Amino acid sequence: MRTNAIVVMTGLMAACGSTGDWDEPTGELLEAIPQECPDGSQGTSVTLRLGETLYYFWDAQDTYLDEVSPSTSRYGTQFCNATGNYPLSGGKDRSCLLWWFVNGPIPAGSIVLDAWLDLTIYDSSQDAYPVYSLNTLWGSSATWLNAYSSVPWQVPGAKGPLDRNSNAPFAIITGGPTGKRIVQLNTAGLQLLQAVVNGTSSNFGIMFANATSSDNLRIYGNLAPNTPDRPGLGIRYCP
Question: Pick from 30, 75, 127, 179: most CB atoms within 10 A?
Answer without folding.
Answer: 127
